[in-house]
C-alpha cells in the first residue's frame, strides 16, 4: 500500500534553513503553480465536449492531458498544505477566466483549442524552467559551502521537472494537432500568452 502521509512529521532538523527571501520565493512559486494547474484542468474540462464532439478521435488525447493536469493540481495542493502556503486570492477569478478561455477556444474548433494549449504550455514551460533554475542555484550555493539542500527541496525540483516535461509533451501534442492552423493564430496565441504572464505575475504577489 502506498502511503501518502501528509500528516507525517519529520523529526529531523532542517539541514540548512531557508532564508526569508527563499521562503518567499517558494511560497509564491507554489501558489502560482497550484493556481496554474487548477486553470489547466478547467481549460481542458471546458474544451473537451466541443472538441470531442467534432473530432471523436481526440477523446483519448484530451483525457490524457486532463488526467496529467489533474495529477499536477493534486501535487501542488499537497505541497501547499505541507508548506502551509495560502492559495492565491485571485483563485475564483482564475477559475472563471480558465473556464471561459477553454469554452471559447473549444467552440472555435480543434485548431484554436490546440493553439490555446500551445500558448499556455509555452509560458508554463518557461515558468517552470525559471523555478528549476532558481532551485538549482540554491543547491549549488550550498554545495559550494559544503552544505546540503533540504531533501524535501530535492523532491520538489524533481516534481517540477517531471511536470514541466509533461507540459512540454502537451505542447508537442498541440503542434501535432495543427495548433498553427488556428485562425487567427497570432492574436489568439498572443492574447493567451500575455494573459498567462499577467496571471503568473499577479498570483506571485496576491
Ligand atoms: Fe500542468
Ligand atoms: Fe499542461
Q: What tags apply to this protein structure?
A:
binds fe (ii) ion; metal ion binding; mainly alpha; 3-demethoxyubiquinol 3-hydroxylase activity; 0% strand; 5-demethoxyubiquinone hydroxylase, mitochondrial; 6 helices; oxidoreductase; Ubq_synth_Coq7
Cofactors and ligands: fe (ii) ion
SSE arrangement, N to C: HHHHHH
Give the percentage of residues in beta strands.
under 5%
Tally of domains: 1
Shape: elongated
| Euclidean distance between termini CA atoms | 38 Å
Low-pLDDT runs of 5+ residues are none
Q: Which structural class do you get from the secondary structure elements?
A: mainly alpha
Q: Number of DSSP strands?
A: 0
Number of helices: 6
Mean of pLDDT = 90
Largest sheet: none
CA-atom Rg in angstroms: 18 Å
Query: What is the share of helical residues?
Result: over 70%
Binding site for Fe cation 1: 37, 69, 72, 167
Protein name: 5-demethoxyubiquinone hydroxylase, mitochondrial
Subcellular location: Mitochondrion inner membrane
Catalytic activity: a 5-methoxy-2-methyl-3-(all-trans-polyprenyl)benzene-1,4-diol + AH2 + O2 = a 3-demethylubiquinol + A + H2O
